[in-house]
Amino acid sequence: WPERLQKLYAAARASATRSTLVLTGRCFSSAEQLAAINPGRIPDDNVVWTFHSYEPFLLTHQGASWAGDFIPYVTGIPYPPSSVPRAELDGVIEAIKERMNSEAPLLRRAGLISYLDEQIAEIDTDEKLKATMDKPFDVVAAWAQKNGVKPENILLGEFGMITQDYGKPFVMPAKWRAAYVRDVIARAEAKGFAWSIWGYGGSFGIVDAFDGKK
Questions:
Q1: Which residue(s) pair with 47 in the sheet?
Q2: What local confidence, expressed as pLDDT, does residue 85 receive?
Q3: What is the pLDDT of residues 38-90, one digit of tens each?
Q4: Which residue, 154, 146, 161, is CA-closest to 51?
Q5: Between 129 and which of 39, 123, 157, 190 could a Cys-Cys bridge form, CB atoms 3.0 to 4.6 Å apart?
Q6: How far is 191 from 203, CA to CA, in rounded Å?
Q7: What span, in angstroms and rounded, lies between the C-alpha atoms of 23 and 154?
Q8: Dist. CA 141–CA 157, nearest whole Å
């Protein structure tokens, strides 16, 4: 990808000589893949570097039917998980496991449940959740400092939390989504990064939901 990015950059810059170009890493613009790029190979002070963060994916994509065979079964985990008593959180997790046991393909059930346990274990305290959400920002900040990239030339180009998947009954409570958005914005601004939320409407919409609903 870094080599292809250079070719794309050169082609764009050849015709758009004054436009600000936004460049990114691979793997859905992950922080780690942005950090794999050597910005010194693109000596241009009219460039913005961007990354996306939806950490932790377990929380931000709950119920998303288009995001693999695991996450569609995961609904109802609050943000942050510590905002409810542990017994209540355990009840939500057990309900998810019951859905997996009754609805998932037989040969996938044990693997899905094991993966759920692993994912929950990574965010089941405020300290673990903070570390998970901080990591992309820390990775990008360290890369920027190492390579002399100014914070104001970095854009968190996507983040957000799902409202509802298309045609699915589960709706993420607004207070969870608002809390998540607030916490991610705080992280971006603490590093001096610009940010852009995904999105205005649709399944992640912050203003428009489906069918023109506000």
A1: 21
A2: 96
A3: 999 999 999 999 999 999 999 999 999 999 999 999 999 999 999 999 999 99
A4: 154
A5: 123
A6: 28
A7: 10
A8: 15
